[in-house]
Amino acid sequence: MTTPAIGKTILILGARSEIGLAVAHAFAARGYAIQLAARNAAALEAEKADIEVRFRVPVTLHEVDALDFAAHEAFVGGLPALPDVAVCAIGTMGAQADNEQSVEATVMELRSNFEGPAGLFTVLANRMVARGSGALVGISSVAGVRGRAANYVYGSAKAGFTAFLSGLRNRLAKGKTGVHVVTVLPGFVNTRMTAGMDLPAKLTAEPAEVGAAVWKAVERGRNVIYVRPIWQIVMLVIRHIPETIFKKLSI
């Protein structure tokens, strides 16, 4: 039986996403107070009330724009408490056909999936280091493991975020700061973002699976996790395909 996390708090960045809410539910079930942060956070009133009633934990709503870099410090400083755990589920996945034809669309994809999350985690990491404890969890993507024609703009943004999380984890571990960084590579997840895609069932997780995996990763101090272990094998194969062959494939 899991011991309730009395007095602990988790911040969910990108809380309107199905993954963000699933993570909130997983931690609320363990007694964490919940901070839901998103653009137009007021629209999460129903979700706030549901979590409060279902899990009997306090929930607060917080307005955040990941691309308003000048406001990152004030956002973190304005939270009712510096969270014990912060999870970044912020991200977009625009159509590759649009991204590759538009500089503006490409830049927005890169900033939304990499720069904004990295900026927020920089502020949170520094404040957690000053306190001497904390965990940062970044939801990245297997798309960042190797660039593919089908989604290389999105994939390159996630590759940048994955590298950022790796470097941040290395920095904080070397300094013995008491702050740990987890990288989550979910693979396909059945959400609005993937609606309409023909996804293989064995490779496709439900949001609740991601939430449970994030909880276990934080609890066990994991570094990098694939929500479904089969993805580790799939990406190992893809990573080692010679470039002369890889560029001819449609995967």
CATH topology: Rossmann fold
The poorly predicted ranges are: none
- Reading the helices and strands in chain order gives EHEHEHEHHEHEEEHEHH
The CATH superfamily label reads NAD(P)-binding Rossmann-like Domain
**Mean pLDDT value:** 93
Question: Topology, please?
Answer:
Elements: E1 9-13, H1 18-28, E2 33-38, H2 45-55, E3 59-63, H3 72-77, E4 85-88, H4 96-99, H5 103-131, E5 134-139, H6 152-174, E6 179-185, E7 188-189, E8 204-205, H7 207-220, E9 224-226, H8 230-239, H9 243-246
Parallel strand pairs: 1-2, 1-4, 2-3, 4-5, 5-6, 6-9, 7-8
Structure description:
- The chain has helices at residues 18-28, 45-55, 72-77, 96-99, 103-131, 152-174, 207-220, 230-239, 243-246, and strands spanning 9-13, 33-38, 59-63, 85-88, 134-139, 179-185, 188-189, 204-205, 224-226.
- By secondary structure, the protein is α/β, with parallel strands linked by helices.
- 45% of the residues lie in helices and 16% in strands.
- The chain has a single domain (9-246), classed as NAD(P)-binding Rossmann-like Domain (Rossmann fold).
- A seven-stranded parallel beta sheet has the order 3-2-1-4-5-6-9, with helices on both faces.
- It is globular and about 55 Å long.
- Helix 1 (18-28) crosses helix 7.
